[in-house]
Amino acid sequence: MRLVLQVVCLSLVVSLGLAFPGSGRPYPSILPHVDLVISANTNNYNVFTSAGSPASAITVTLTINAGVLVGSTSTAVAALDTGALPVGSSITIINNGTVEGAGGNGGGGGGQTNTGLSAGGSGGPALVLHCPATITNNGNIWGGGGGGGGGGGCGVGP
Asked: Rounded to whole angstroms, how far apart are CA atoms 142 and 150?
């Protein structure tokens, strides 16, 4: 099953579904276009940086190849972030791999008196969008799972 999603962030997008046959790319616009491909595992991917830090609006097509993992090294940083693309930019993401946020840390366990117990930490985001985006997800997009809570201690009787 093929799922096509259009995600709109921070502005309104009108999609007419017009594309060059077989390409998935929209008909030409007045904006420059950048094609990006992630072909090997990577962490903390930033589209703005990978597109050369453009100073004016662009359109981007980002393809994540099959079998590729885009991960994160921290729950505070998304696995894939569009970054600070200039106003008026848009992106098409074709995901054939896996985009996975970082998992949260496990909580602290209790000592003999069950003190020091703590909850696990929150997981991190897989994807952060700062501009209009169209996503074709043929793979997986997973937010990081939360860490497990700390277990109770085992006291020794007198």
From this structure: 24
Name the pairing type of β-strands 133-137 and 3-7.
antiparallel
Query: Of 25-29, 90-94, 143-147, which has the strongest mean pLDDT?
Result: 90-94
- For CA atoms 4, 126, 56, 9, give the dihedral sign: positive
Contact 43, 70 (CB under 8 A): yes
CB-facing half-sphere around the CA of 124: CA atoms within 13 A: 23
State pLDDT tens for residues 55-72: 999 999 999 999 999 999
**CB neighbour list of residue 108: distance below 8 Å, 6 or more residues apart:** 116, 117, 118, 150
Give the HSE-up count for residue 129: Cα atoms under 13 Å, Cβ half-sphere.
18
Burial 101-140 (b: 16+ CB within 10 A, else e): bbbbebbeebeeeeeeeeebbbbbbbbbbbbbbbbbbebe
Flag whether pLDDT at 153 surpasses 90: no
